[in-house]
Amino acid sequence: MTSATTDLDSTAGSVPATYSPDAAFIASANADGALYERAASDQLGFWADQARRLQWDQPWTQVLDWSDAPVAKWFIDGKLNVAYNCVDRHVIDGHGEQVAIHWEGEPGDSRDITYSELLAEVSRAANYLTELGMRAGDRVAIYMPMVPEAIVSMLACARLGLTHSVVFAGFSPTALRQRVDDAEARLVITTDGQWRRGAAAPLKAAVDEALDGAPSSVEHVLVVRRTNIDVLWTEGRDLWWHDTVTDASPDHQAQGFDAEHPLFILYTSGTTGKPKGILHTTGGYLTQASYTHHNVFDHKAGHDVYWCTADIGWVTGHSYIVYGPLSNRATQVVYEGTPNSPDEHRHFEIIEKYGVTIYYTAPTLVRTFMKWGRQIPDAHNLSSLRLLGSVGEPINPEAWRWYRDVIGGNRTPIVDTWWQTETGAIMISPLPGVTATKPGAAMAPLPGISAKIVDDEGTELDSGRSGLLVLDQPWPSMLRGIWNDMDRFRETYWDRFAAAGWYFAGDGAKLDTDGDLWILGRVDDVMNVSGHRISTAEVESALVGHAGVAEAAVVGASDDTTGQAIVAFVILTADTAASGRLQVARNSADNTGAALIAELKAEVSREISPIARPREIHIVPELPKTRSGKIMRRLLRDVAEGRELGDTSTLVDPKVFETIARG
Length: 663
Ligand code: WTA
Hints:
By secondary structure, the chain is α/β, with parallel strands linked by helices. Among the domains are: 112-264, 3-Layer(aba) Sandwich (Rossmann fold), CATH 3.40.50.980; 530-662, ANL, C-terminal domain (GMP Synthetase, Chain A, domain 3, 2-Layer Sandwich). The chain contains 22 helices and 30 strands.
């Protein structure tokens, strides 16, 4: 145990206990302390060692070229095929009969897919996509629920050098269209429908709606049958997977691609309404995804049963369901549905059924489990678990302890992993056989990674002081840009500390007096709702898209379960206000005001996704602005969280708040 740290703030918690790995775990751990020393003494040599865990068709001649910063090139002249590394080589090495995926469908159907079967499926898909005329460098949008064909599609793209853009199947047709257009996708792969809490919901219909109207770059829509729900069919454009891919040859020869060949684009929210297409490439990305999965999760091929509960629509699904685990020959669970379908026992039943040993999820789900009560996990034998992981948002110490005690039987190490869509792979995390962890702390940059905590001027801060998290050295899986917008790439991440050449992550952080790192959350206008990044600007633009709204301001207010929840303040147009709906809302004489608010919430769900639906909408007469016209979100957050108002002196009209608070 280390000595008590007395200066931790409320977000970080104040209990100083540390949890050391036990002797047996240490003895068999993939990573030991020497990894830090090796990386510190020769960083590029260290990354070359990690890259050698992969199979290269052509070796690199140089590890890093940073001369064109901030666009890095890693493993210059190296060539490799990502799908070959994730599938073929395991079959060639004699592990074809090992299960790659224990797939668990929401309605209770399940499928085990071995590495040989996965290879045949990926090869069929690659052969058919080639027959369709898709060529290396073309973009493919993948808009699918968690079915095996989604993973097969991603790997088939990787195999052919097609750049995939996975769009979360919960996103709206508008959001899909925006992403398809920005990447100029030639193909969309989707399913007829998706299972949601026992019911089949349409999905292809959303693709039809997205592609209706103005002509798009999309030539074909390839459809996997999942729910048998009725679909409309556009002859010539639409193709059934079972009529095409299924009949293609299961043999396909993979070719190597340049280490810097684009592997995928993944859109994420920034501080404006327009999502950013984060671009990742091949060799460096796979090196770091594979290295982190091996060491942070202490994964042992052929022994562990690994389960990451993310969706392939997010970066966690890319790096820790598809590329990291498969490159390491994992046997993993992939689950299609929600944790409470058909009831709250589902995840624990799955852990028992497959003997899951490594479980990686988000704090919001841990807090949901806490709310449901420990009698639910206690009804199951969870003794197979030996490691737990957390990702997506800060995990509060109380949830951390509950996770370890109740899910982990007070045995398992917990790895709290900090990273971003932009970083591609885990950056800051304990190593489970090395680090004595503190509940709520991400602890330290991984071997090979360097981070600093600085103030606005870039001065490094003493322990105990909160500041901005920066990454001061390039890393292999770093983003290579924003698709179609390299200016925005520089502005967003590199301009803030341009002189030093550091990457600005957008998160606040601090070191405690032991030198351990705590992530404090976003410092920009990006909200984190259940681990999903949503920008305030995106929700504001959806709200002002409603004819009744003149102006909107959105903040993330803290929420016990979802981390943050969306709270919106809207000013109605004069017409709407005059129509009496506002007056009625205030008086609550009937539910017309409530109806308007419900309409606005539905509008946001429709425009973006149900995950962006505001928890509360307040109709207000005015919004607090500075003299330069900037909305003071900090003050709105005070209102939303029921706090005393902070400094209002810079407002044009400090009295605005009396009306807002009363509203
Ligand atoms: C937050 C998800 C605290 C952070 C992999 C970051 C975290 C954003 C953690 C990226 C963590 C992620 N502790 N905060 N362990 N992991 N975050 O792009 O604010 O969806 O900037 O990537 O999530 O979200 P993204």
